Amino acid sequence: MSVLGETEGGAIPQCYKPRQDVDTRLTSITPTIPFGLQLPYPVLNQTTANMASLLPPIPRFVFTVFEPISLVAGFFGPILDTENFVKSQLPAASATPIWPAATTRILALQLGNVYGLLGMIGVGVLYTTTEPKVVRNFLLACAVADVGHLWATCTVMGQKDFLDVMNWNTMGWGNIGITAGLLVVRTLYLIGALGEDRVVASSKQAIKKNT
Question: Which whole number is the average pLDDT over 92-119?
Fold first, then answer.
């Protein structure tokens, strides 16, 4: 046998051939080492799992169902009724009866476009990646944006109207209530209070299959 482990005929001994195990979630190839020793991790070639299916139940519903639907509503709101969208950003007592200026309408439509973009990015990240770090960084960025959203709303609306929950209109519940709720869920998920992400295949399972 040569140093590279080949026989004189060029064939590779069975103990050095990779072993392939296939289950419903992934294709894992784990090399078999002589004397029954195994590598402590599987080498993943392909996986059908994504973070939308690996998140804990509450974050899964909030981030993969509820939030995309709310962002779709935020996208169509200014497009279908720009005037009402602009006026409803403030309480009825503070809203102006004047038709929004051209610049205000452009900003409203651009805001709707941003909502649509954020929705597509969220769906793209959560339904394609299997990397928890990618999802955590994405949700952390969204949490920072939530804080900025609430700050901007409070700055223009005023602290009194901002905290006057009983007199919030529909847009107030969207701008403040839903945003604050999403921020709470993101924070709880990031600190691990809502459970841990499911693992596609653990090292122990992979080793058991190959022994």
Answer: 81
